[in-house]
Amino acid sequence: MASEKIIGIAASSGIAIGKAFKLENPSFEVEKKSIQDALEETKRFHKAVDQSKSELTEIKNKAEKELGADKAAIFEAHLLVLSDPELIGTVERRIEEEQVNAEFALDAVANDFITIFENMDNEYMKERAADIRDVTKRVMSHLLGLTFQSPAAINEEVIIVADDLTPSDTAQLNRQFVLGFATNIGGRTSHSAIMSRSMEIPAVVGTKTITSAVDNGTPLIVDGLDGVVIVNPTEEEKAAYQKKQKQFLEQKALWAKLVHEPTVTADGVHVELGANIGNPNDLEGVVNNGAEAIGLYRTEFLYMGRDRLPSEDEQFEAYKKVLETMGEKPVVIRTLDIGGDKKLPYLELPEELNPFLGVRAIRLCLERQDIFRTQLRALCRASVYGQLKIMFPMVATLEELREAKAIFNEEKEKLIQEGVPVSDAIEVGMMVEIPSTAVIADRFAKEVDFFSIGTNDLIQYTLAADRMNEKVSYLYQPYHPAVLRLVHNVIQAAHKEGKWAGMCGEMAGDETAIPILLAMGLDEFSMSATSILPARSLLKKLSKAEVEKHVDAVLNLDTAEDVAQYVQTHLK
Question: What's the CATH number where 514 sits?
């Protein structure tokens, strides 16, 4: 039988060679039924929820023991979903008001929630739809009396093939037997992808067709480096991938030696490699991968998966933990970036026709100063425990920046008047993720201590292309000359005023972008923790003096493809 090559998304590095194990959960056929006793039906629903909570607690404890607290945190979030009054209360109301069975009510409500998350512009938030799906499927299985296949029961070496792997599936994988996995759907920021990286299990996601292309026992190769799955590989292909696997393991061993080394280019120039985190539980990966800073702490996750705003003291403890763990290393904390499409159930935000361009991030904080001031007070109080840098997201105008800084200064001064110690070395900067900001970066540079370029949004706003829309995803081009010119403009503007410029978008860890960004003079690169050592290894091989000779040539190319080809030919 001829081999078949299926292209997907490289989610976790490495090569796996083995036979397929199809993980197939039952499909839930939900019928709408009229009921006589809404109270009894609600009790039945609660029993299924309680059974699910019990199972998730068991999975969480196992994950905590085998993967660490940071990876087990997802199940804490899942347990919170099952306690979310918005979700549970809405199901209860549908049962009572419509006199329908619990299965139908749960299915309808879950689908509404999933649709909201899937329509968000933030990739991380979009992937959270999978969490809702995972949790509600578990509840549904109890309502329908069906059982899931348990990945924990696998007791031979296999490559798992599935439509998708839920976080609870992934946490139950036994690394002794699971060599790798491949799924039809998912992206690099899905929980299954994140957890596969932490478990160092090679994975390819988003293949679209893998489940229909294989049967149980079909020989497979999963190439998590290039995002390829080979079905029924030939002996020659197996030999080639065994060689590639050996080379990768040797490369990993070399990267591991760089954990405690500074990031210095071949000609002795130091650049800072930071990590992006979502909560304090991510710190273990940051430390283990030798990050020199936290380049982005996304504080919105403090506000999510709960039924009220976090208090000043709760926030203070979270920020303090991150600052203390990093010690003398810089920590850049982004103020609340939520609103518009990213809704908090306990915040009544108005519906917007285009939430991507609506009241979100700094716009929401300036409108709801009570929330903003509480966060700034917590940040100021924590500042004495480390090297704090605060940045404001989605700033579009100088007026917004000035107002945000004025509020920060007011709260800082109030704390000092109250006798609360506050560091006098807090740097205040801003995200550059809107083209208008990048264009007049020279004006902003006079009024901030630093810039951090958020390329995820900058790229889609510059090219007017929603990166989550498959039909225009071809326009999401990090190397597009227009994007590169904006980035270059921001770095130059910062340096002219003696300020530093960093980048916290996915582009910062991209091996094609890194030589260009070094050439432009980027001071700080912040990325997912697992990208740090490969980036450090690459930067050590590059000479800044050599690559910067190519800046003008790169900026004058016509297309993103031209740029990628130029880097391959001249800068690698």
Answer: 3.20.20.60
Final residue in a domain of this structure, among 91, 112, 144: 144
* Cross-strand pairs, 205: 9
Active-site residue, selected from the candidate residues 78, 365, 380, 504: 504
Structural domain of residue 137, as residue ranges?
38-144
Residue 246 lies in a domain: no
Whether residue 288 sits in one domain with residue 273: yes
pLDDT digits (tens, 9 = 90+) for 332-353: 999 999 865 556 777 777 777 7
Q: Which residues contact 57 (CB under 8 A, 6 or more apart)?
A: 75, 79
The CATH code of the domain that includes 56 is 1.10.274.10
What letter does residue 514 receive in the DSSP assignment?
Answer: H
Does residue 78 carry a catalytic annotation? no
Strands 228-231 and 15-22: unpaired
Main-chain dihedrals φ then ψ at residue 65, nearest 5 degrees: -70, -40
Say how many domains are in the chain.
3
**Largest Cα–Cα distance in the chain?**
78
pTM here is 0.73
| Residue tagged active-site, from 78, 191, 480, 488 | 191
Tracing tokens 């679209």 back to the chain, one arrives at 208
Determine whether 46 is an active site residue: no
Tens digit of each residue's pLDDT (9 = 90 or more) over 69-79: 666 777 777 88
